[in-house]
Amino acid sequence: MSDVKKSLLYPLFQLLAWLGGHEVAVLLALGGIASGVWAFGALAARVMEGDTRAFDRMVLLALRRPGDFVPIGAPVLPEIARDLTALGGIAVIALLTAIVVGFLVLDGKKRMALFVCAALAGGFIVSTILKSVFLRPRPDLVPHIDYVSTSSFPSGHSMMSAIAYLTLGALLARSQEGKRLKAYFILVAALLAFVIGLSRVYLGVHWPTDVLAGWIAGVVWALLCWVAARWLQRRAELEPAAEHAPEM
């Protein structure tokens, strides 16, 4: 063993040992955060320079009938889109968060409950700050089919749905041992964020690049919260994930 320590390969052995277990997931998350920050910055720069105007107009108009700007599809689709978009609204997310926080408190995980509140409240603050920085006007090509009162970039519904559902989905996934159940929770969370973002464009209240930026920012914040939770759990400042008996 002493010979190995003296060899030039020893630092590699140390690195491989450190990467063992869940450290690989942490490194992937950190890589995702860095990539997401870069992607958001690049997209924001192109939006502010007007480089995405043609793309935004093309997609928005593709969802409207030529001439009267009525949304394409069956007449019931706008109502369905409003129902879906409500899942990304503050009222629904706050209610869902309260339900999850109540469960965590009853389950004896008070610090985890506080962490969830801080994660979602922090995401809302970041979303509000970003909107106030960019101040992009809402689409004016088509009539809005939903009430809006803030600026357009990034989409708050897209960002908050990504934050809320991915964070809560990750919590549910960590409470399970089976890989299929873990994947199910994460996929459902991602699907919810996806359809909520699409509904914002269909309703004419966001440019497509607003939604894309919201998704990116939401995923970055959710990954940051996940890494922070793991770090706090290792320091015993946050309750660990529940342990389960092995699957039969």
Describe the protein in words:
The protein is mainly alpha-helical and 248 residues long. It has a domain at 83-243. Helices cover 70% and strands 0% of the residues.
What is the gist of this entry?
The chain has 248 residues and is mainly alpha-helical. It is built from 10 helices and no strands.
Largest sheet: none
Provide the helix percentage.
55-70%
Instruction: Identify low-pLDDT runs.
Output: 243-248
Average pLDDT, all residues? 84
Structural class: mainly alpha
Strand content: under 5%
First-to-last CA distance: 39 Å
Number of strands: 0
Can you tell me the overall shape? globular
Number of helices: 10
Helices and strands, in order, run as HHHHHHHHHH
Radius of gyration: 21 Å
Descriptors:
disordered C terminus; mainly alpha; 10 helices; 0% strand; single chain; 248 residues
Topology, element by element:
Elements: H1 2-6, H2 10-18, H3 23-49, H4 53-62, H5 77-86, H6 90-106, H7 110-134, H8 156-174, H9 179-202, H10 208-234
Helix pairs in contact: 3-10, 5-9, 6-7, 6-8, 7-8, 7-10, 8-9, 8-10, 9-10
